[in-house]
Amino acid sequence: MAIISSVIFAILLGIGGYFAFKSFSKIRKSILLGKDEKREGNLKNMVLMALGQKKMFDKPIPAILHLFIYVGFLVVNIEMVEIVIDGIFGTHRVLSHIFGSFYVVLISIFECFAVAVIFSCIAFWIRRHVVKVNRFQSADLEGFAKKDADTILYVEVILMVAFLSMNMADLQLQQLKAEHYPNTGNFLISSSLTSIYADFSASNLVLVERFSWWLHIIGVLMFLNYLPFSKHLHIMLAFPNTYYASTNLYGQMKNMPEVTKEVKSMLGVATTESENSAVAGKFGAKDIQDLSWKNLLDAYSCTECGRCTAQCPANLTGKKLSPRKIMMSTRDRMEDVASKNYNANDGKSLLGDYISHEELLACTSCNACVDACPININPLEIISELKRFKIMEESAAPQSWNMMFSNLETSFSPWKFSPSDRFNWAKES
Ligand code: SF4
Ligand code: SF4
Question: Which domains does the chain have, with CATH numbers?
Fold first, then answer.
């Protein structure tokens, strides 16, 4: 029986691991559809933003709840090491033999985190469905996005309850001195809840303990396979995303070297080597393969928290633009292309079919979204690239913008007056 159980366990682990690996490889391939771009890594930024969640603490209550879920989930799943060893070798609580009396302390810590995760998931559910926090009520989240957020909360609660239930049944079996259930000592939380199973017979307790054990491992494997389709992919991608995030000043835009070369030559300013070697190709971006790999990594890392949209002046004044939706649309387009065997020639493009002209024109390039994002995502870079394509390749700028462009060319300012008159206002006063 123990051998059959070990074989089933190993097969499940292999199948779950294989499909998860395939899905993550597909995401990597989708990100690499983007253009090459040199990015310096920044370990300090990654530690502060992804590990330390520095920006999250602008709003302390959700930050603490999020920290409980994040740390709790990671810590409790260390238990998976023991489950995997026990599953393959047919042992039971193998780590209790290695850690001795410290094992009780370890599992008690895991249990405290499990309770914190359950509490935080309930609080997040209440924020979404009872308090109805504004940024979670937007039209961006209609359909799958809303269901996805709820699904993960339910799954995390189920996994944590399974973990506690497994320990409770195990402790009861230990008290009954059941075979294969060695005495480990009392765990902090589950020992005070064992009365729930007080009337259970030994065989029913074994059933509960085994059911919870299998539920835990199968739940984790399913979670791993669901992650690539979910916004919760950020629990992994937040790390590389913050590592490669630009720490340049917000106002410093990514210039096009081929255009800078032309402008500098007109002004008689010396050009750099990289500007000289720049060859004019397509200006801006029409589809995902015109964006950089970092823009695409941004889209896969987005947590859909809506902090960017809540700060966006265009959105706040009723315009159609939502930086969160820009990231979600970019990801949707990537998934669409991946589902067609990476064929982007399907007559569709990110610009037009997923992100409209109206959304782009509403952007003021203020960088408020970039500043608000807890994991350094930059929706403005994508918006700017799409705008560049619209204006420089399709000459589709609004008339008022064209007037501003010619004023810049002739008067070196957005207004139509001579540069020599620029300080007249000071003389008049
Ligand atoms: S840069 Fe554009 S998208 Fe971002 S907050 Fe400002 S107006 Fe909104
Ligand atoms: S871009 Fe950043 S702030 Fe905006 S929804 Fe995504 S993770 Fe949240």
Answer: 2-232 (1.20.950), 284-397 (1.10.1060.10), 398-429 (no CATH)
